[in-house]
Design goal:
Helix content: 40-55%
Number of domains: 2
Order of helices and strands: HEEEHEEEHHEHHHHHEEHHHHH
Strand order of the largest sheet: 4-5-3-6-7
Largest sheet: 5 strands, parallel
Distance between the termini: 101 Å
Strand content: 5-15%
Number of helices: 14
Low-confidence stretches: 17-42, 254-265, 271-329, 335-393
Structural class: alpha/beta
Protein name: Sulfotransferase domain-containing protein
Organism: Cyclostephanos tholiformis
Radius of gyration: 27 Å
InterPro entries: P-loop_NTPase
CATH architecture of the largest domain: 3-Layer(aba) Sandwich
Amino acid sequence: MIAIRSRSRWLVALCGAIYLYSFHLFGDDDEVRRQPEAGVRRLSNALPNGGCEITWPKKPPRDVEITYAASYPGCGARMTWNLVEALTGLETGDDWNNNGRGDEVVTVKTHYPQSNGILVDFDERIKRVFVVIRNPMKSIPSFFNHIYEMRNHLPVHSERAPLEEWTKWRDAYLDIEIAEYKKFIMRNRLLITYEGLTDNLIGPQVAKGLNEFLGKARGVTPIHSDSVACIWRAVVKNEPPENQAAQIKKLQAQALNQPLGTYQKKTEQEKYLRNTAILMQTPEVVPAELARPQEAQHKQLPSNQQAPTINGNPADAHEVDVDPLDLLMEKMQKALARGKVLQTRNQLEKNQGGQQNGQLQKQGEMQNEMPQYDLSHRRLDPGHHNSQRGGPDVPRPYLPRQLDNMMNMLLEVANRYEKTDVRLYHIMMGYCEQVRSERAKLNSDEPLNVKSHRGFF
């Protein structure tokens, strides 16, 4: 009995010592966690002059307001969730919980109501959604290519399926996927087009809209708007942000040699945005004043007052919404049109026989120090999937009746939203026009079997 009591005392004493030691140990750890630099989610850093530094995403606050990131398969879901993580600095997840993060995420990627997507267990908590759509003529082949890679145990975005595999799958499943695409269109959401998000000129503006939308959610503090264009280039175009300052100076010198932000440049950009939005791409990025062309877009100066100038060019003193990087991309396009060669990194490597100069080597070293996104497959032309192992891009052909079915689906969606969602209406009509153009290239004697629509036929 005495031995048992003695052992009991020793056991109690030992437990007490362990408790006190653990209290001291974890108490210090709690102190460390309360320090502002540890255990706290840090955003991608906004640097001066619109620069940025991408940091690794971490868990969001427990009370974060989660957003659905919905897209039909083949509409750039992987690219979009990389962009969201870079903009917010917070981890994202998907409906199948492949990364095991559950509901500790800022967005949940889903393809629902397409058959590959599901609603998560905590669906009732999600009240926000943004939707990424793409012309089905391009997104369906991209989806098929993903299926081919999965079936053959290939890395994602690494191989293009053989043409005969596409033809076999197309004839068996295309009509089903056209119906799935139509079912996917939702309401009460921020609508983003893949074409707009990847466009060289208006892509940063679309990313800014996404950044603002994400910032309205509880527990989310996105990166400063001045650095969104830098984040967009790093994620969507796979251009390392560390090199942006030097790149901007180089392009300024090589392009038009005109100051950024002039009245003339803003007018050209607004004209581009208006024409592009009306045709098909992203009506949501058109400034509100552009929808009312009868109103003056710039304040008129008295006749006896001379307009301000910058280096002899007229300037708009009230110009605050024009992104210099967007204008710079416009300069690049104009310079290229005039025959001035602005070499990309890939072109430089090719021209130099694979040997990089010191600047490119330094650029690569810095890029290796930052989070890497698997975006090497992307091209400036968002309409095709590029593969280093799969060979050159080839068109994915359709039969005439299949394109007719696709046009009928797009027109049905356009009719549904013509009066309730003008943006979606114009996007669907733009997609339909692209499909019709592809149909005309087939030179088929098969008659067009498309329902008439006002303004289309």
